[in-house]
Amino acid sequence: MRIERLLTALAALIFFMAAPARAQESARIDLIGAEIFGIDRSHSHLGFSIGFLGMTKVRGTFNDFTATILYDDVHPERSSVTLLIDAASIDTHNEGRDRDLQAAPWLDSANHPKITFQSRKIEAKGKNQYLVHGDLTMKGVTKPVAIPLVRTVPRGPDSGWGNIRIGGTGAVTINRRDFGVEGPEFWSKSLSDTIDVEIDLLGSRPNYDRWSYQSKEKPSIGEVLQKTVETSGGAAAAAQYRDLRQSKPNDYNFGLGQLGTLVNRLMQHRKLQDALTLLAAALEAHPDEPALHARTGEAHAALGDRPKAIAAYEKVLALNPHGTEAKEMLRRLR
């Protein structure tokens, strides 16, 4: 009997852990043939090394970067990525050198704050091996590069939170002079022309079922509205949101994160019309919030409405010209 109870408990545990993943299995958007992944910035890495005086290497990282991956698990070669790097975030563990590298002779981050990479084509080269062709832009110069990439994390839920993960690592060598990264003559001669770049990206689709509303001082508006959605639907919840904002603005936590958690939960469970109804109400109060327009775009794309999806993501890009999700989605939608 003890073994039987143990097997029953184990089966229940497996079901509980697998349930969040199943809730996200339909996250693929048929209209774009992929699903949206952001990156887990805390567990991704973008580093480089460059020869110094022919004797050793200077090593560093970029501490601020983001990316959006449109991932096709059935045909990974149909995936695409937009990567955006903050040039001023260069870190070689030497503050003086970092300031010099940010300056005009080198990266000129004041006039060219972003380094970008956008894929154009992905070639399958063997099991979990790919060649990612794309355009690298630095200091206003765009050059084609091809990055060998190994898929290190196949799509699936992690064992901690049930977040859906993908991951890959790659390396490429570029010539800094191709991009006008010259530097003062003395120092430029001290460094090699080629730079070895290392990339390690961990993509993530959060499991919002495991997120809490985390509202201590006041009741969360998201938690209140979730109960209304469950009992009466999205339209009733949107009406309640509008009413409470007007009649009891100080009684609830109306922070965007509260409503955002609810909207993302609805999106995760593909309750797209309910999500859109709440997003419309939220946009009345926050018309210039890029995240609300982005989720609106994703919902329309998932429902197959290309014009509305494009309009929403164009609004995101107008509000945030550096938004990688909007750039990547618009490339695919258009």
Task: Characterise this structure.
- It is a single chain.
- The protein starts with a helix and ends with a helix.
- The protein is 38% helix and 31% strand.
- An eight-stranded antiparallel barrel has the order 1-4-5-7-8-9-10-11.
- It is elongated and about 70 Å long.
- With 334 residues, it is α+β, with helices and mostly antiparallel strands.
- The protein has ten helices and eleven strands.
Name the CATH superfamily assignment of the largest domain: Lipid/polyisoprenoid-binding, YceI-like
Give the helices and strands as they follow along the chain: HEEEEEEHEEEEHEHHHHHHH
Contiguous low-pLDDT stretches (5 residues minimum) are 1-23
Secondary structure tally: strands: 11
| Biggest sheet layout | 8 strands, antiparallel, barrel
